[in-house]
């Protein structure tokens, strides 16, 4: 879905929260885009309404601080940044309220996947890839390739050990160090 084109005359009216016609026009123009944006980032269909509402509230609260940087699509970039942060906050809250079920079998299952990212969820995948690109320069090329190929590309460890001429232990160590650093970056963003 293409980002809607926003008239500059509408953008300058948005900081005035009493200008209901500006906000109605904005919501009519952007709500479908924001729903699509949230859905593409992993928000379940049943939660899209709530997530979109949270994004719209965040935009209303922060629109006064929007500064046009003079470059093309300044407002759209700002809008996507606000929306992305709100989706991350929404998904984090949603995950914190999940009630665990099961027993010993569930605990064993969780322990067996504790260090493996769940790439079935597009949101987590995008967040991990984003954080990984931020820290790439902090690690040697061989460590980075060991991590990227086994975690992001999901290649078998044995195939990567032969290709990179590394031991299984070296690959697991590289993965562990890089994933620990990624978790730290993600935690910083979530605060």
- Report on the biggest sheet: none
In CATH terms, the superfamily of the largest domain is RNA polymerase sigma factor, region 2, helix turn helix motif
Derived from helix and strand composition plus strand pairing, the structural class reads mainly alpha
Measured distance between first and last alpha carbons? 30 Å
Count of alpha and pi helical runs: 9
Strand content: under 5%
What features would you describe in this structure?
It is built from 9 helices and no strands. With 191 residues, it is mainly alpha-helical. It has 2 domains: 8-96, Rna Polymerase Sigma Factor, Chain: A (Orthogonal Bundle); 111-190, Arc Repressor Mutant, subunit A. The longest helix is centred in the middle third of the chain and has 23 residues, at 74-96. The radius of gyration is 21 Å and the shape is elongated.
Helix/strand layout:
Elements: H1 8-13, H2 20-40, H3 48-62, H4 74-96, H5 104-113, H6 122-135, H7 141-152, H8 157-164, H9 168-190
Highlighted features:
single chain; 191 residues; mainly alpha; Rna Polymerase Sigma Factor, Chain: A; Arc Repressor Mutant, subunit A; 9 helices
Question: Can I get a quick summary?
Answer:
With 191 residues, the chain is an all-alpha fold.
